[in-house]
Amino acid sequence: MRAEKSFLVVVLLLVAGTAPVAAAATVSISNFTFQPSDLHIRAGDTVTFKNDDDIPHRVAAEDGSFATKALDTDDVASVTFVKPGSFPYFCTIHPHMRGKITVMP
């Protein structure tokens, strides 16, 4: 019984001392769409935009909080979201392409 309590205390100390690790998500750009087009993440997470299309795309937030360079086929660009909120975005080259990232605390 004592060994079980000691083991439990060690496990609890290890878990309590572990800092949260930011997650990563990928948005694929393909056939003039963002997939997924509606993404929910946590503050501190990083989103990577990957161009799987045959033509360039440039991703920008409607509020101007982020913008990528023009992404050619297979290019990637990553954005880390620090603040909670809703971040609608679009392709500046093809403005009908739209998506939204919701950042939770």
From TrEMBL:
Leader sequence residues: 1-24
Keyword Cell cycle attributed: no
Pfam families (alphabetical): Cupredoxin_1
SUPFAM superfamilies xrefs: Cupredoxins
Source species, domain of life: Bacteria
Cofactor, how bound (note): Binds 1 copper ion per subunit.
InterPro entries linked to this entry: Amicyanin, Amicyanin/Pseudoazurin, Cupredoxin, EfeO_Cupredoxin, ET_Amicyanin
Domain EfeO-type cupredoxin-like: 8-103
Stored Gene3D superfamilies: Cupredoxins - blue copper proteins
Protein known as: Cupredoxin-like protein
Upper taxonomic lineage: Bacteria, Pseudomonadati, Pseudomonadota, Alphaproteobacteria, Hyphomicrobiales
